[in-house]
Amino acid sequence: MRYMLLLLLLPLIFACEKVEQTKQPDPGEQSLESTVDSYWKAWMAKDWEKVINMTAPESREMIEPQIRSLSENPMAIYLDYKRIKVKVDGDTAIVEVLLTIDYLHPILAELSPQETTIFDYWVKRDQAWYRILERHDMDGFMESLKQ
Fold first, then answer.
1. Contact call for residues 79 and 105 (beta carbons, < 8 A)
2. How far apart are CA 128 and CA 99, in angstroms?
3. I want to staple 129 with a disulfide (CB 3.0 to 4.6 A). Which of 26, 35, 66, 96 is the partner?
């Protein structure tokens, strides 16, 4: 009789037990998110050496004049950033970032800080993510991500 009762209750016990499966975050995406945060925190802190080191080598000669301009004659102060969307495809990624910028130009100085959305392009090399400014080799990939 006990065994019969156990056999009758066993399906009920398993039916009541809810096994939740949570989606494990993708380690590559987590690594990228952390890198993006470090990059933009360095940018806000004007840690230009770190920004350059986190930029892909082929893009460094493009970013160095921007950094020099921001250092010598700043026309804007980057106040904040927020990651909106991250899309990873293998060793390439696009990150939508919302920036809050306070413009210092005399014509724009009267305005309150402005928000603008940009698309950051990233490439993974030797297990590290780098921001890439040249996008000619990623055009097809980027178009597919925007759809």
1. no
2. 24
3. 35
Token readout for 76 is: 């804007």
CATH of domain 27-146: 3.10.450.50
For 2-127, where are the E strands, in sequence order? 76-89, 92-103, 114-125
pTM of the model as a whole: 0.71
Sign of CA dihedral 146, 91, 30, 119: negative
Give the residue carrying structure tokens 């597919």: 144
Contact between residue 122 and residue 95 where contact means Cβ atoms under 8 Å apart: yes
Band the pLDDT of 135: cuts 50, 70, 90. Answer: low
What is the per-residue pLDDT across 79-109, written as a single tens digit (0 to 9) for each?
Answer: 999 999 999 999 999 999 999 999 887 887 7
Q: Domain locations in the chain?
A: 27-146
Residue 147 CA to residue 142 CA, distance in Å, equals 9
Distance, CA of 38 to CA of 123 (rounded, Å) = 15
